[in-house]
Amino acid sequence: MFKAPLVRAILEGRKTQTRRALSDRTLQLLEYGSIAGECYELPTSGAIHPNDVAYYNSFCPMGKPGDRVYVRETWAEIPRHQPQTDEDLPMRKDGRILVYQADPEWDGSRNFLCADGCMRWAKPDRWRPSIHMPKEFARIWLEITSVRVERLQSITEADCIVEGAAGGHGAIPGYQYSATPIEHFRHIWESTGGDWAANPWVRVIDFKTISTNGRPA
Q: What is the DSSP annotation of 74-111?
């Protein structure tokens, strides 16, 4: 799942990496693994033991390198009777058109050329949260290229940039200075409910975009 600004970053080719905090369940499984002698404990500081890298990566719920995953984003359907358009928009079998909140033209409504030749505004009845997006409605598909585990604050400026956080003036609303990539990424992390100060263990997933118009063949 990605919020609209990060979806736009993917569509524009500015985002090829994402981070997800290790869940309590994953941390518990790794603790059990260390008790059973299958791996070392997660260190309180420093890097993961080299022998454990592959073991920790195997618990990635998003998949492994080579796996294809789809992006869930905020979406809506416009009933068939509203717009009649020849634009290249995803359409369900019943004629309903799928629209996505991340698209810049969706500031609340959109102009469509209707069957009678008149231009009319069309507005979704309601936006649906990304968590409820069915796979068949997804337009963006990614292929995982690498997975690793590290501390959140280990992120480099280069990683921030491929996370879609390049910094600069206006990157952080209300911030009067030119934000660094690290500051910009921290703002994104905290704005989505993450705790930067806690410096949690995170899974870093690198990916490439393989489709932006539906499931690839």
A: -EEEE-TTS----S---B-TTSPEEEETTSTT-SS-EE
What pLDDT digit, counting tens, does each position of 127-162 carry? 899 999 999 899 999 999 999 999 999 999 999 999
Q: Which residues of 16-39 are buried (b: 16+ CB within 10 A; e: fewer)?
A: bbbbbbbeeebeeebeebeeeeeb
Q: Cα(121)–Cα(109) distance, rounded to whole angstroms?
A: 6
Instruction: State how far the Cα of 89 lies from the Cα of 135, in Å rounded to an integer.
Output: 17
For tokens 């058109």, name the residue.
97
Q: Which residues are paired to 144 by β-bridges?
A: 207
DSSP 39: S
Task: List the helix and strand counts (H, then E) for the chain.
Answer: 5, 8
Task: Extract the tokens encoding 119.
Answer: 């231009």
